[in-house]
Amino acid sequence: MNHMSSHVSEHGTGFRSGHVSGRVSESADGLKLYCFARPEAVALFRNEQITTAIHSIGYRDVISIAERVSLREWVGPESEAKLNDLSWVGPRAVRHDQIIRAVMEFSPVFPADFGALFSSPSALGRYVRDHFDEISTFLDFVADKEEWALKGLLDRQAVQSALASSDERMARLPASSGARYLLEKKIHRDAHKKVGSFVAGKRAQLVDALAGVARDHKVLRGQSRAAGGRDKDVAINVAFLLAGSDRGEFLRCVDALAPSLKACGIELESVGPLPPYRFRPDWGEDGHE
Known about the structure:
Number of helices: 9
Number of domains: 2
Oligomer: single chain
Helix content: 25-40%
Radius of gyration: 23 Å
Strand content: 25-35%
Shape: elongated
């Protein structure tokens, strides 16, 4: 059973990456938002290595952690090649995650997606004023909580073999080698078709088993091995929100559930603690002006 500390967060929806709030001139500098937090997060600025070029903008008891950037690097014709270049995006995505994690040491956070941009401090200030109640309510909600991702890596062949082996028809195979061969082929074809429903059932059992220790959960879309850069598909993908004090119990429960799943071809992997991306309020396309 793998418990991993994630270095690059899996960002959810809420702020549209590459969209700028406010009017932009061609040569404008703007602000790239990292997160919203409570004023206690200003303690972050004691670490000058992390906070070079980072600014905090306060409104009542919410502060915005942002960095001044050249907007031409992020939007418009000149930005397209950079945003498709992993060597350019990668270090900036890592820094985005690093800053949010550093803030989490001092305050609950409302994390912004990588590339959430504002044309000016006043544009960011207006945004916070317009959404203050939602931001503040969320910060209260996630205080002393953390997000964990639980992933089930699928060995499709192993699951298919387990389903075929448990098929009642395997105990009644005909004596004739030809008939036996044809029935075995049919059993394996049927098993292949059942993999999806089998995984869904195991995911439901997993969520039910962890419901008592988690405060909330979100079932997420799986990932193909190609999309996830792995040698197996991520067939189970669930985000859990739990109190920090419940982390040990949560991981013990995951460890207890892992062997039976691995025996039938699903390897569990837990990743965290993460910023609470998956539990932000859904503002849709209007969430970022």
